[in-house]
Each structure stands twice: as structure tokens, then as C-alpha cells.
Description:
Layout: H1 2-60, E1 78-83, H2 93-105, E2 110-115, H3 117-125, E3 129-130, H4 143-159, E4 164-174, E5 177-186, H5 209-282
Parallel strand pairs: 1-2, 1-4, 2-3
Antiparallel strand pairs: 4-5
Amino acid sequence: MAASSMKDIKLRIKSVESTMQITKAMELVASSKLRRAKLRAEATRPYFSTLHKCLNDIAYGNTEFSSPFVQKREVKKSCYIMIAGDRGLAGGYNSNLFKAVMAHMGGKPACVLPIGKKAVEYCAAHGLETLTTSYAVAETVSLSDCFEAARMLCERFCKGEFDELFVGYTNFVSMLSQQPAVLKMLPIRYEREQAKNTAESLTLYEPSSEEVYDAIVPSYVGGLLWGAMAESVASEQGARRTAMDAASKNAGEMIEDLSLKYNRARQGAITQELTEIVAGAEA
Length: 283
């Protein structure tokens, strides 16, 4: 009986050790990818800031400014870009994002542009209206893909297929902290009373400030989307690294506990054998 118990414990220890090797390897891979993703996320922020400043200069530097991308209209339908991961084993990274987007959606009419395998699967499972599944693999989404998606979304927005555009992504705070967020992309916030008489108001745009503004907005939305992608990828790797580190620690604790049980079972078996030998000798 004791031998059978010892054998089971030993097999269990080997199984946990194999799992621990996998989690350790995944943690190292996630750490390597995290460094590159973090640098990419930091590199995208200046681009967005410059583009945002350019749009403000055009809008506030013209007294008679009008664009479909800033006009407020009755919201009949919304559109959400949902950026999730391609794989699991990243703690609550995917589930937290889905909860944040669905809470923001609040049951109102909406369509979704899913990015990432998990996002596509979630939309299919919950019967959400999907614009396209062309971006089902988040790792392969490039900067050109973001600009292509932005142009498509801006065209649909101008046609009135939806009245506001949001992006749901995960903001990379630190290696140990990632926060899901929903950012409004369209219409762009614009308040005329905030305009000031600055040097930019003397700038002339050809053929007109409205046409220049409308031409830049798709690039602005594409830049926002690329920045959200970079933040999400870094967050996913950070969450996976944390999850795998915790899994490795739990596996180590299980091995210690199983080793203690194995030693106790082995000690009990030795004691039983000695007792049998002594009893046989006395007989």
C-alpha cells in the first residue's frame, strides 16, 4: 500500500516538474517580448501627441470650421474596436477587457471590430455584430493594417453607419499593472469657445482647412489604433509574464508539499519494514 502511494506521489512530482518547466519557459518568452513591446508602446506616444496638436491647430485656428468628424449627432448606433489577445494563459487580461467593453456598451445598439483571436471568439459566442474578422491574429496586425482599418471606419462613420467610435484596449501601466480602458475616437471633441487667437490662426490651408482636416483624421484614428495595439500587446505580455511567474511559484510549492508527503510515506515504509524484521527475529 505504501509502495503504491509512493509511486503515485513520485509520478505526481514529475508531472508538476514538467509543468513548471513549461511555465518557466513561457515566462522567459513573455519577458523577452515584453521588453520589445514596451519600447514600441513608448515610441508611439510622440506620434499621437504631434498629430493631435496638428488637428487642434487646424480646428481652433479657423473661425469658420466645420467637419463631419467633429459634428455631434444623435447616437443611434455605436462601434467598438475590441483589442484582445490571441492566446490565453495571461491571467485576467482578456476577461477584464471584455467586461470593460460590455459595461461601456451597456446594451445599446453597437457593432464590433474585433482584433485578436480571443476577441473574434468572444463576439461569435455572444452574437455581437462584427464588421470584419480580417484582424483575427493580433500579432500580425501592422501599422499599415491600422491605417487601413481606420480609413474603413472613417468612411462608414461619414456614411452614417454608426454615430460614434470607441476603442477598447488595455493600458500598460507597469510590468505588474495593466488596466482595461475604453477611449472615444470619433467624433473628435471640439469646442469653439476654447479657440484662442494664436499665430496658427494666420496659417492658410490648401485647398481648405476642412479638407486638410478630413484628410488627416483617418491618419489620426490609425495612429490612435496603433498606439492602442502597442499598449495592448505590452499589457498582454506583462500579464502573461506575471501569470506564468505565479504558476511557477505555485508549482514549486506543490513540489515541496509532494516531496514532504513522499518522504513521510518513505519513512513510514522503512519503519514498517524494520518493525517486520524485528518481529521476525524475535519469533
